[in-house]
Batch of 4 targets.
Target 1
Amino acid sequence: MTEPPLAFRIVNWIGIIDQLTTTEGNRLLKPLGLPLPQLVMLNHFSHRPDEAKTVTSIARALQQPQPGVTKNVQNLVAKGWLRERTNGADGRSKLLVLTPAGLAKHRAAVAALSPWVARAFADWSEKDQRTLFALLDRLKLWFDSDRDQR
C-alpha cells in the first residue's frame, strides 16, 4: 500500500494529537469543573478579555454550530465566567464578556495543564519549540485565510 501524501499525513498527525490532548485535557480539567469545550471558549475570550462578542461571532470564529456554542455560553454564564449584556446594535442578540472569575478560571486551567504539556516538551530545546510554533502558526494562518475565502 502506498503512503498518503506527506501533507495529508501532517494534518492527520495534528488530528491524532488533538484527540490525545482532548482526552487528557478533559481528565486534567475535570477537578476544575471545566470541560475542554468550555476552556476553548474561555481561551477565545482571554485573548481580548474586554472585547464583547455575540454567539454568532463566537460560532464563526470557532467554526462550531451555533446551538453548541449557545449551550456552552449558557453554562459559562450560569457559572459566572461570562456575563451577558444587551446588544444596543441588535436587540435580538446579547453581548458576552469575560468576567474576572472567568479569567481566573482560564488561568487556573492553564496552570492545571501546564505541567503535563511541559513534560511533552521536556527534551525539546527552546529553539525547536519556537520553530514548531512558527511552522504551526504558518499552517494555522493558511487554514484561517482559506476559510475566509470560501
Target 2
Amino acid sequence: MQFRLKARQLALVLLTVFIVQGCRENEPKPHLSELEKLPAATHEGKHTMGFLLNGRAWIPRSSIRFGAVTQSIVSIGGGGEVDGLQVGFGMNINIYPPLRISKPYNLAQNDTASSSMSIDDGVKRTLFCVFEEDAVLEGELLITHYDYQKRIMAGTFWATFLTESCDTARVTDGRFDLLFTY
C-alpha cells in the first residue's frame, strides 16, 4: 500500500513538472524594441547592415551590396522591408586618399558622399517615393573600422531625406559591418 501511495505521489510530482515546463514554453517571448531588432554594431566582417526608418527596423532581406574599395568609390546598400513596403537603400563614398576613419562624411554634400532611397509596394513595384542624392537634407556616415588585409569595413550612419512629393524619411541608428572586394 505504501508503495502505491509513493508511486502516485511521484506520478503527481512528475505530471506537475511537465505541466509547468509546458507552460514555460508557451510563455510569450520578450518583445524586442525596433532598435533591438537591428544587427549589432560590430566590426568583424559579419556582412550585416540595418537602420531605423522613421523609427521602424530595416534590415536588408534580398541582398547587401558592397562595392570595391580600390575603385575610389565605396558603395553600400541593399533591399529590405518596412511595414510591408520594399525599401531600397544605398550610399556611395567617393574616396579621396586617404580614406577617413573616425571622421564623418557629410551625406548632404555630394562632393565626397551621397545617399539615396526608394520605397515601393513590393508587389506591383509601384514606386511611392524616390529620394535621390539631392533629397538628403542632412546626414553623416562614419567609418569606424577598416581592415584592408581582412577586407572589413564597418561604420554607422544617419540621414534625413526630404522631397516635395513624399513625407520626410528619417534614417537613424544605421550600422554596417561588411566584407569588401578589391
Target 3
Amino acid sequence: MSLFITCPVADVQRATAFYTALGWTLDAEMSDHGVSCFAIAPEQYVMLGSREVYASVGGTEDLVGGPHTPSKVTVSFDLPSRAAVDEIVERAGAAGGRVGDTDDYPFMYQRQFDDPDGYHYSPFWMKPDADPTA
C-alpha cells in the first residue's frame, strides 16, 4: 500500500525549501509549480499543494483552512537512532520550523516540530530492549 499525506500550503516554494532542508527527497515526476511531492520512505509521500490546487481536488474547498489553522493530525515516524531524531528536528528549526517538546520515556525518545504552515511532526526512536509498559 502506498501512503500519501497531502497538505495545503501558503507558498509551495517555501514549503519545498523547508522539506528539502529536512533532507527529504523531492520526486520531480510527481511535482510541478503547484505541488511538491516528497518521498519520505518507500511508497510513502508528503504532497505539498498550493491552497488553490488542494481546494480544486475532490471538493475539499471547506477543508483548506488558513495559515494559522492548527494541524489536525500529528505525523509520527520512527528513525534509527536518538541522534537521527535530534538531527531532523534541528534541521527543521534551522529551516524556519517551530521546535516543540522533547519526551524521553524509558522505551522511546520523541521530539516535535511544526513546519511553516503549522503541520505537526513527531519523529521518534524506540529504545532497543526497553519494556514498552515502563
Target 4
Amino acid sequence: MSEQFHDDPLKVAEGWMSEGRKVAVATVVETWGSAPRPVGSHLVIDQDSNFEGSVSGGCVEGAVIADALEVIVSGEPKMLEFGVADETAWRVGLSCGGRIRVYVERVG
C-alpha cells in the first residue's frame, strides 16, 4: 500500500477492506478535560490486530484494540469510556486528568 495512506486511517481501512480484511473503526466521539487526541480522531484495526491511527495512546489504545477485535467478530458496536475517575482508566494508563469516549464499529 502506498505510504500516502498512512496519514489517513480511514483510507487505510478502505484499502484493507478492498484486500478482504475484516475491519473495525474506533472514533473519539467526546472528550472532557485533558485528552491526548481530539474528537474525530480514528484508529482502524483489522482482524489480525494490525492498526493505524490513534485515539489516545499507550495502554488505552491496547484496550480499544482488544474491544475492536470483539466488535469485528460480533458485529455489535461498543461505546467505550476511559477517565481518571474510572478504575479502568488507571489500569490502562489514562491518568492525564481527562476522559474520552470512543465508539467502535465494524465497517464493510
